[in-house]
Design goal:
The chain has 424 residues and is an alpha/beta fold. It has three domains: 189 residues, P-loop containing nucleotide triphosphate hydrolases (Rossmann fold, 3-Layer(aba) Sandwich); 90 residues, Rossmann fold; 114 residues, Rossmann fold, CATH 3.40.50. Helices cover 36% and strands 18% of the residues. The protein has 15 helices and 14 strands. A six-stranded mixed beta sheet has the order 2-3-1-4-5-6, sandwiched between helices. Strands 8-7-9-10 form a four-stranded parallel beta sheet, with helices on both faces. The longest helix is centred in the first third of the chain and has 15 residues. The two termini are 35 Å apart.
Length: 424
Amino acid sequence: MGMNDTPAGERVHIGFFGRRNAGKSSLLNAVTGQELSVVSEVRGTTTDPVYKAMELLPLGPVMLIDTPGFDDEGTLGEQRVKKTKQVLEKTDIAVLVVDAAEGMSACDEELVSLFREREIPYMIALTKSDIRDSENDTMKLINSFIAQEEEDPAERQNAKTQGGNEIAGVIYVSAATGEGIRGLKEKLAAILPDREERHLAADLVKPMDIVVLVVPIDSAAPKGRLILPQQQTIRDLLEAGAVPVAVRETELKGALLKLSEKPALVVTDSQAFEEVAATVPEDIPLTSFSILMARYKGFLKIAAEGVRALDTLKDGDRVLIAEGCTHHRQCDDIGTVKIPRFLKKYTGKDVVIETASGTGFPEDLTPYALVIHCGGCMLNEREVLRRMRFAKRQGVPVTNYGIAIAQMKGILARSIAPVAETLL
């Protein structure tokens, strides 16, 4: 898999924010070395977030995001500002882009408040430095930020400890002359602390262990390829020196008989859980791609707690089934067809099913008795955890596909056992 094939959910997301005509698009073009965003003297040229995947050393694969002006006006402007706020939810590092000649505005201060609220590390890029009239405005800007950051030293120290909610510096940049572009990249690359190495399954097995991966190939499977969690699990196991063996559920029994030794682990697609659990002997550890992904993204414990709500659902309760990406629905789609069918059979209740996909995750979850989310493979860790914590703060139980299906099929304890340490 090449650098540009790195999944979006595995990239550090860097968002460029600011007023209209502050120079966000020109700066992004300068950072990428490409005419990615349309540039114009007309205020509000960028009307939708623009995404660009690239490599930024030493951070590695990143996703750069150009956003609409945060001071946009009118009905359409409100929609653009809303989209910008949605980008914030997936932003790992924020760049506040400020016109050096115009200085700080109330809009910029509001953005800083949003960064701090969400504990997003950020820096300030003073654009159009080649045409700035005075150093005074800039000095006032810098002093203002220093004062703001030092208002609560305890909070600032805590932010440093957590690696977020911290200003990483102010830098002059010019898209026209190239001034400060290299320095900006270096500062961005130095902001985030080293990430702890995480694994989907490699830490559960030893080198040369056989791991059987059960991959259904049905009408809902993507033509000619495996879905992302399956690809990532195979890669993770190969890097650990394990021996992944992929098989359909229809050939699983025969494959187990042909193996010269007992598998160290069996990982199945959630929708084949019931059949696979009946086939795999009890002394062989069994889990699902979805459960491994929940552990990898850091929300396994929340999801395991939330699944208890399945047993308290009543007639008329609303259940939200949410997916992080959008895709063409198949006739036997897991989110819109299979899980609702499993729910009805398991609960025996007449619950109301609602669905959401992509960025359409509701801000108000209080109408729901339960949220069942996908594994989140296409979302970065920050956005997945935000959704989980968002539900928890509103007192709404949340779980994911794999854990919900395991519970409804009566095999939750068994399927979580291989990753039980995560729940301690």
